[in-house]
Amino acid sequence: MRAMVYRGPYKIRVEEKDVPRIEHPNDAIIRVTLAAICGSDLHLYHGLLPDTRVGHTFGHEFVGIVHEVGPSVQNLKVGDRVMVPFNIFCGSCFFCARGLYSNCHNVNANATAVGGIYGYSHTAGGYDGGQSEFVRVPFADVGPSVIPDWLADEDAVLCTDALATGYFGAQLADIVEGDVVVVFGAGPVGLFAARSAWLMGAGRVIVVDHLEYRLAKAREFAHAETLNFTEYQDIVVEMKRTTGWLGADRAIDAVGAEADGNLLQHLTGAKLKLQGGSPIALNWAIDSVRKGGTVSVMGAYGPIFSAVKFGDAVNKGLTLRMNQAPVKRQWPRLFEHLQNGYFKPSDIVTHRIPLEHIAEGYHIFSNKLDGCIKPLVVPNAG
Amino acid sequence: MTYTSAKPPLPETPEQLRARIPGWGADLDPRDRPSVPREVFSPGTTGAHWDLPEQQPELWPRERSIEHSRLTPVFGTAQPPKALSGVLRKYAYRRFSEGRAAHWLILIAADRVDAVESHLASFATLHPDNPITETGVLAEPGAHPIASRRGRVDIRHQTLDPVIVAGPWVVGGWLAFRVARGVARRLRA
Asked: Of A4, A23, B55, B189, which is most buried by a Cβ count within 10 Å?
């Protein structure tokens, strides 16, 4: 089969690999029909996440057709059209039994502080991902769901991470009616978080970024006010000014490890890998939110230390909430919202890239060229 | 405003927001959201039909965090550790917990060693690494490279990217040169 393969920082190619096989009785093999590149894949692509091995196939956002099932699989059959949450989870451990699907304890031998994620390094379990023609899906009776007939593949693939994560991020922000919500980052997760904040009754939603084309999308898709942080000497002061000097009630970090806007943080975190990421957006969130407010962290960070302004968070009495999204827990309500026509996830898709050209796709996405917001990957596009 | 008990006024009323934004307030009740409460003990609702999953066969000594008491029932089998990078990775897992910086820093160092090893090994194959095609820079001409970058603040920080990409190649070339020169000197002697 053809599969995207990591060859070292900033380098990937498409190779011939063996079709994955059933390794556990509850495995399924899925033939991927559509995948996506996530902003967090760029952390891997840039060599930021520890134990990203040459030969690894990325991709934790994918949908496909069931190709083969293990002997204990009961809920799926060959030929089913399925969507697969980015979390790999057993459904029965201490954490899964309490709904913390993203924190499963039975699927990641490499780390206890991280759950299992498809195609997201050995730090997330050492599973090849879905930017390929076939992928092994453990616990097929627990993770994947048959895609409802009314849901198109392009919308379904966004439900496997970006939409569910943005929606989850808005929930972790503890939004109540009339809250002022600031979202740092106008990428896919930020756009979905901003859109979700309205569902929860936000009174104002402000999106901060430095890429004008993404801010334009935030205004159009997420109905948000926008601030380009490069137009202000100090974005924290501007946030205070625009909120009557109170600060936002809730802040959402939808940027994560490779934030820009501070040279020292960016160099040590994103380039030299001396931190678990560059927490610029997180620090701005901490300083922009009002005392007693909530910061929801959806941006992905590496497992080593980061220079976070914890003292400010303590002194302001903030609530910091964070997790990888337990995706499947979000789906029933999200499906209701999509069926009600509140918004269409695939409206943020900008690029559809054949698998054979995925190196070019990563370059465009990584460098934010050509108005790129969300690239999809199409196996067998030729 | 902030210096009194009043909250700054909002520019729009709930009615105006509901009229302007499809779905405004659909999840208004904080208690009625999919992730609330955070932990809901509900085994048997996930599709799992086991208490403890069956153990996946361990086909080689699988490296694992020492914060686990056992090998997890299911684990990834992609890219088993190999060569010097594999030695470093197995050492990081065997010796240091996830709480130790050494664990992660050794793993990051092993990643860089892996890249160099793999680049060198690829030259002995029919499919050697090609930094031109693998970095995707061939997409530049069709992706509005100048207009896309005009006025962006992050561009100056991207000047380090070529160093990160070219670094292993420069180091590898230097090592190859040293080895070749050493061999040549021995042959002449």
From this structure: A4
